[in-house]
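Hi everyone, sorry if this is the wrong subforum. Our group has a chain we'd like a structural model of before ordering constructs, and none of us has done structure prediction before. Sequence below.
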Amino acid sequence: MIYNGVIVTAVVSWAVAQLIKTFLHTIKFKTFYAQRLVGAGGMPSSHTSMVISVLIAVGRKDGTGSTVFALMFILGAIVIYDAMGVRRAAGLHAREINRIKESFTQTDEDGKPLIFKEKKLQEYLGHTPLEVVGGAIVGIVIGLVIPV
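Answer:
Right subforum, don't worry. Here is the predicted structure as tokens:
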């Protein structure tokens, strides 16, 4: 049987973060929303969780002086920066575009929109710094627990 602890760590870390995200969303909105199980955005950041857990797993397996660890560090920094920067900005833009669409949308007698028939844009894309820290904590724990 082939076992790759780094891949297992990544998958478990992502899954745990998504389950936590879904649980917190269910508590906050008092309804289960299945899309949270795989969707981007929210607390904790599953992207951050995954790259941090892999960084830890690679450090444990190959050492912190290895080239693979250095590459994972750089990749992790890019993913986290992107989650808090570009993807967060895109989510904020989507929220504003949705508000603009709502204010301009007129409906017919049946309540169907006459303009902007497209669905709403996805607003949960990026992360706040707190969501990234939450993902990092999940990633650290999983990265230390899963055997590599």
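For your construct planning: The chain has five helices and no strands. The mean pLDDT is 86.
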